[in-house]
Write a structure and sequence with these properties.
This protein is α/β, with parallel strands linked by helices. It contains 15 helices and 9 strands. The relative contact order is 0.06.
Amino acid sequence: MWEMDIGVQKHKKYGIVYRFNKFNSIDIMQTKAENILNPLRYYLSKDAKKRLKWMYIIYYECDGNISQAANKIGISRQWLSAIHSKWKKLNKDPRLLEPISKAPKNTNNRQRISQETENRIIEVRNKYHWGKDKLETVLNRDHQIKVGASTINRYLAKYGLLNVKISNKNKRAYQNKMNNNGQINKQKLRPPTKIKDYKPGALVEKDMKFILKMGQFTNPDKFRAKENYWYQHTTIDSFTRIRTIGLAEDSNSKTAVAVQEETENRLPFAIACENTDNGGENEKDFSEHLEKNNIMHFYSRAGTPTDNPRVERSHLTDEVEFYQHGNICKTFADQKQKILDWEYIYNYIRPHQALGNLTPMAFYELWKKDSDKAYDITKKWQKYLNKQRRRLNNARRIKKKEQINKLMQQIDRKLANNYN
């Protein structure tokens, strides 16, 4: 049940409004289905994506009428109803739309490789100690034997030639990432860009900042000694820039959990995903805390602060606008109170350029009242950033022909003697 207008589509029951282009309606339907029914952007096969569009048609084009949807799609009602029932029963997880594997359950009658080929696999393995992919290439190139990598791996396992320690390590690593519902909660990957400005709480960034204590060093012989610092744990929401700050006297993972629990209570929304660096304070107890609370854990690349940009930028703000103006106290309790006062100023008083010069809390209230207006502010800021990136990239390039020609002449002179 849609109300149509030039370039606008609105569903009467669900109140969802979309802009569309009549020349690519199929692509737009796929995008709508992904946005609504697969918000976490799980990887789906081609067949699963097709079924996701079917679910979209059922709910948003046929008002839940499966018979009408089946006629529109061109498939049987019984088949569509079975897929829909399974998907709906298991919390509408888009990964459950993947088709069942057609691999045979019993492979006793499968044609096997010859004994000669089997012996050749073992011979080449014992000679070079390579893995299945390299063995596949060598067998085909040097011995004219065509056999797949998975088949090679099976025979390596049969003869006990696989590194069991590595195999078990990979299995345990995967199992440790899975929670009881089969959902992966720990990713040694960067978070997808789309969730950074998706919703409040969709992604928060966390980092730790060293705060040099005021007055005489506890351990003056070692400037980097732990006794000379307090530790600021900062959590910032990627979308609204609402930030919570906790101060600790050490940097282990148990303390990080205590600070995390304290700061989580000051956020006005739940946390779905959290991105951290690879520091020790973000492992062990902290990682278990996130898993226990069903928070997906992403990691930045080592030595790459640009993977956690918003919390890193907030630390620069702390340094320039707070610490450099004498806001370092002699006692831990006084410093903690100072930081709480600064947190309030950051969230409720300080305008933020990326939020249209609104404060983070004001932007959050705007999103609750008029989400479209909040998203427009975000898109405008991203457009400005992209424009600045292009300007910077262009400034870094040598574009003038004269400069390029001089550079080429310089290269020719430098290398001329080497070729004579």
